[in-house]
Amino acid sequence: MKNDYEYGGLKIPDIECLDRALKLKQYIRANKSNHIIKMIQIYCSKNGGLGNTLAQEFKNIMVEEEICKIAQETLNIIVDYTREEMFGEMNQNEVSSIIAINQIAATNVETYLKRKERVFLSCMLKPFLNEGLESYHDFVMEAETEALGNRSKRLETIMNAFPKYYRNAANSFNKNTNEVNENITHFLKINLEWVPITEITTKDLQWILKKALNLITEADFQNRLNLENNTIDPVQFRNDC
Questions:
Q1: pTM of the prediction?
Q2: Is the pLDDT of residue 206 over 80?
Protein backbone atom coordinates (compact mmCIF):
# COMPACT_ATOMS: atom_id res chain seq x y z
CA MET A 1 0.00 0.00 0.00
CA LYS A 2 2.98 2.34 0.47
CA ASN A 3 4.26 1.94 -3.09
CA ASP A 4 3.27 3.83 -6.24
CA TYR A 5 0.09 2.97 -8.16
CA GLU A 6 1.91 1.23 -10.99
CA TYR A 7 3.46 -1.21 -8.51
CA GLY A 8 0.18 -2.05 -6.79
CA GLY A 9 0.33 0.58 -4.07
CA LEU A 10 -1.78 3.52 -2.91
CA LYS A 11 1.08 5.93 -2.13
CA ILE A 12 0.25 5.78 1.55
CA PRO A 13 2.88 7.61 3.64
CA ASP A 14 5.04 5.69 6.07
CA ILE A 15 5.11 7.57 9.38
CA GLU A 16 8.75 6.76 10.18
CA CYS A 17 9.89 7.86 6.71
CA LEU A 18 7.84 11.06 6.91
CA ASP A 19 9.29 11.84 10.33
CA ARG A 20 12.86 11.21 9.18
CA ALA A 21 12.37 13.17 5.95
CA LEU A 22 11.01 16.25 7.74
CA LYS A 23 13.77 16.24 10.34
CA LEU A 24 16.51 15.77 7.73
CA LYS A 25 15.08 18.64 5.66
CA GLN A 26 15.13 20.85 8.76
CA TYR A 27 18.71 19.74 9.51
CA ILE A 28 19.86 20.62 5.97
CA ARG A 29 18.09 24.00 5.99
CA ALA A 30 19.55 24.93 9.38
CA ASN A 31 23.04 24.11 8.11
CA LYS A 32 22.67 26.88 5.50
CA SER A 33 21.23 29.42 7.96
CA ASN A 34 22.61 31.75 10.61
CA HIS A 35 20.25 30.38 13.25
CA ILE A 36 21.50 29.18 16.63
CA ILE A 37 20.34 25.67 15.67
CA LYS A 38 23.24 25.57 13.20
CA MET A 39 25.67 25.98 16.11
CA ILE A 40 23.95 23.12 17.97
CA GLN A 41 24.36 20.90 14.92
CA ILE A 42 28.04 21.78 14.65
CA TYR A 43 28.48 21.01 18.35
CA CYS A 44 26.80 17.61 18.00
CA SER A 45 28.90 16.76 14.94
CA LYS A 46 32.16 17.66 16.68
CA ASN A 47 31.19 15.53 19.67
CA GLY A 48 30.69 12.67 17.23
CA GLY A 49 34.25 12.97 16.03
CA LEU A 50 33.52 15.06 12.94
CA GLY A 51 33.63 18.78 12.34
CA ASN A 52 31.24 18.36 9.45
CA THR A 53 27.46 18.46 9.91
CA LEU A 54 26.76 17.15 6.40
CA ALA A 55 29.31 14.36 6.19
CA GLN A 56 28.41 11.36 4.05
CA GLU A 57 28.06 9.21 7.16
CA PHE A 58 28.61 9.36 10.90
CA LYS A 59 30.52 6.79 12.93
CA ASN A 60 29.06 8.07 16.22
CA ILE A 61 25.43 9.19 16.35
CA MET A 62 25.03 11.87 18.99
CA VAL A 63 21.95 11.71 21.20
CA GLU A 64 22.10 15.13 22.90
CA GLU A 65 19.65 16.66 20.42
CA GLU A 66 16.80 14.74 18.81
CA ILE A 67 16.79 16.40 15.37
CA CYS A 68 20.54 15.92 14.96
CA LYS A 69 20.30 12.31 16.10
CA ILE A 70 17.59 11.37 13.62
CA ALA A 71 19.12 13.42 10.78
CA GLN A 72 22.51 11.74 11.21
CA GLU A 73 20.90 8.29 11.40
CA THR A 74 18.95 9.11 8.24
CA LEU A 75 22.06 10.23 6.36
CA ASN A 76 23.66 6.89 7.26
CA ILE A 77 20.59 5.03 5.95
CA ILE A 78 20.63 7.01 2.70
CA VAL A 79 24.35 6.53 2.03
CA ASP A 80 23.97 2.78 2.63
CA TYR A 81 21.10 2.69 0.12
CA THR A 82 23.21 4.65 -2.40
CA ARG A 83 26.03 2.14 -2.04
CA GLU A 84 23.65 -0.78 -2.53
CA GLU A 85 22.46 0.85 -5.74
CA MET A 86 26.11 1.18 -6.82
CA PHE A 87 25.76 4.97 -6.95
CA GLY A 88 23.35 4.66 -9.87
CA GLU A 89 25.88 2.38 -11.60
CA MET A 90 27.86 5.53 -12.42
CA ASN A 91 27.08 5.29 -16.13
CA GLN A 92 23.93 7.30 -16.72
CA ASN A 93 25.73 10.41 -17.97
CA GLU A 94 28.89 12.39 -17.40
CA VAL A 95 27.41 14.53 -14.61
CA SER A 96 26.14 11.47 -12.73
CA SER A 97 29.52 9.80 -13.01
CA ILE A 98 31.28 12.87 -11.63
CA ILE A 99 28.96 13.02 -8.61
CA ALA A 100 29.29 9.29 -7.93
CA ILE A 101 33.09 9.30 -8.22
CA ASN A 102 33.28 12.36 -5.94
CA GLN A 103 31.32 10.62 -3.20
CA ILE A 104 33.20 7.34 -3.52
CA ALA A 105 36.57 9.09 -3.49
CA ALA A 106 35.59 11.14 -0.42
CA THR A 107 34.45 8.13 1.63
CA ASN A 108 36.06 8.38 5.06
CA VAL A 109 37.86 5.05 5.51
CA GLU A 110 37.89 5.15 9.32
CA THR A 111 34.16 5.86 9.51
CA TYR A 112 33.34 3.20 6.93
CA LEU A 113 35.29 0.46 8.75
CA LYS A 114 33.86 1.41 12.14
CA ARG A 115 30.28 1.30 10.83
CA LYS A 116 31.02 -2.10 9.27
CA GLU A 117 32.42 -3.22 12.65
CA ARG A 118 35.73 -4.23 11.10
CA VAL A 119 37.68 -4.02 14.36
CA PHE A 120 40.90 -5.67 13.16
CA LEU A 121 41.08 -3.47 10.06
CA SER A 122 40.37 -0.39 12.19
CA CYS A 123 43.46 -1.24 14.24
CA MET A 124 45.51 -1.83 11.09
CA LEU A 125 44.34 1.54 9.85
CA LYS A 126 45.79 3.67 12.67
CA PRO A 127 49.37 4.05 11.33
CA PHE A 128 47.98 5.29 8.01
CA LEU A 129 45.72 7.78 9.76
CA ASN A 130 48.76 9.12 11.58
CA GLU A 131 50.33 9.72 8.17
CA GLY A 132 47.37 11.86 7.17
CA LEU A 133 45.49 9.37 4.96
CA GLU A 134 41.74 9.77 5.42
CA SER A 135 39.65 9.37 2.28
CA TYR A 136 39.25 6.28 0.12
CA HIS A 137 40.98 8.19 -2.68
CA ASP A 138 43.98 8.78 -0.40
CA PHE A 139 44.34 5.06 0.24
CA VAL A 140 43.91 4.05 -3.39
CA MET A 141 46.55 6.53 -4.54
CA GLU A 142 48.90 5.33 -1.79
CA ALA A 143 48.33 1.69 -2.76
CA GLU A 144 49.06 2.47 -6.41
CA THR A 145 52.47 3.94 -5.61
CA GLU A 146 53.58 1.83 -2.62
CA ALA A 147 56.57 -0.39 -3.41
CA LEU A 148 57.26 -1.97 -0.01
CA GLY A 149 55.71 -5.44 0.15
CA ASN A 150 54.43 -5.49 3.73
CA ARG A 151 52.98 -1.99 3.62
CA SER A 152 51.43 -2.65 0.23
CA LYS A 153 49.72 -5.78 1.58
CA ARG A 154 48.26 -3.83 4.51
CA LEU A 155 46.91 -1.19 2.15
CA GLU A 156 45.37 -3.82 -0.11
CA THR A 157 43.79 -5.58 2.86
CA ILE A 158 42.06 -2.36 3.83
CA MET A 159 40.99 -1.69 0.22
CA ASN A 160 39.46 -5.17 -0.02
CA ALA A 161 36.95 -4.23 2.70
CA PHE A 162 35.22 -1.94 0.21
CA PRO A 163 32.92 -2.92 -2.69
CA LYS A 164 34.89 -3.89 -5.80
CA TYR A 165 33.39 -1.14 -7.92
CA TYR A 166 34.89 1.45 -5.54
CA ARG A 167 38.38 0.79 -6.83
CA ASN A 168 37.46 1.34 -10.47
CA ALA A 169 35.60 4.54 -9.60
CA ALA A 170 38.54 5.91 -7.60
CA ASN A 171 40.91 5.09 -10.46
CA SER A 172 38.63 7.14 -12.73
CA PHE A 173 39.16 10.19 -10.51
CA ASN A 174 40.24 13.18 -12.60
CA LYS A 175 41.55 16.18 -10.70
CA ASN A 176 40.27 18.46 -13.45
CA THR A 177 36.64 17.39 -13.03
CA ASN A 178 36.46 15.60 -9.66
CA GLU A 179 37.04 16.72 -6.10
CA VAL A 180 37.36 15.05 -2.71
CA ASN A 181 34.70 16.80 -0.63
CA GLU A 182 33.74 15.56 2.84
CA ASN A 183 30.28 17.08 2.42
CA ILE A 184 27.50 15.04 0.91
CA THR A 185 26.40 17.25 -1.98
CA HIS A 186 23.75 15.13 -3.74
CA PHE A 187 21.19 12.43 -2.99
CA LEU A 188 20.44 9.53 -5.33
CA LYS A 189 16.67 9.45 -5.86
CA ILE A 190 14.67 6.24 -6.18
CA ASN A 191 14.74 6.61 -9.99
CA LEU A 192 18.58 6.74 -9.76
CA GLU A 193 18.80 10.43 -10.62
CA TRP A 194 21.06 12.73 -8.60
CA VAL A 195 19.65 15.84 -6.97
CA PRO A 196 21.49 18.49 -4.88
CA ILE A 197 20.74 18.12 -1.18
CA THR A 198 19.46 21.70 -1.03
CA GLU A 199 16.88 20.88 -3.70
CA ILE A 200 15.72 17.48 -2.45
CA THR A 201 12.04 17.44 -1.51
CA THR A 202 10.43 15.82 1.52
CA LYS A 203 8.50 13.63 -0.91
CA ASP A 204 11.69 12.43 -2.60
CA LEU A 205 13.29 11.69 0.78
CA GLN A 206 10.27 9.61 1.79
CA TRP A 207 10.55 7.48 -1.35
CA ILE A 208 14.30 7.02 -0.83
CA LEU A 209 13.69 5.92 2.77
CA LYS A 210 10.81 3.60 1.84
CA LYS A 211 13.17 1.82 -0.55
CA ALA A 212 16.20 1.92 1.75
CA LEU A 213 14.24 0.50 4.71
CA ASN A 214 12.57 -2.20 2.56
CA LEU A 215 9.09 -0.86 3.29
CA ILE A 216 7.67 -1.26 -0.22
CA THR A 217 6.97 -4.30 -2.39
CA GLU A 218 5.81 -4.54 -5.99
CA ALA A 219 2.71 -6.36 -7.20
CA ASP A 220 3.18 -8.66 -10.18
CA PHE A 221 0.04 -7.82 -12.15
CA GLN A 222 0.99 -9.98 -15.12
CA ASN A 223 1.20 -13.25 -13.20
CA ARG A 224 -1.07 -12.70 -10.20
CA LEU A 225 -4.14 -11.01 -11.65
CA ASN A 226 -4.25 -13.24 -14.73
CA LEU A 227 -6.50 -10.78 -16.50
CA GLU A 228 -8.16 -11.79 -19.75
CA ASN A 229 -8.13 -9.36 -22.66
CA ASN A 230 -6.83 -6.59 -20.38
CA THR A 231 -10.37 -5.75 -19.23
CA ILE A 232 -8.98 -3.99 -16.12
CA ASP A 233 -6.19 -1.42 -16.02
CA PRO A 234 -4.50 -2.10 -12.65
CA VAL A 235 -2.83 1.31 -12.51
CA GLN A 236 -6.09 3.14 -13.25
CA PHE A 237 -7.86 0.98 -10.68
CA ARG A 238 -5.35 1.94 -7.97
CA ASN A 239 -5.53 5.59 -9.01
CA ASP A 240 -9.33 5.51 -8.70
CA CYS A 241 -9.02 3.97 -5.23
A1: 0.86
A2: yes
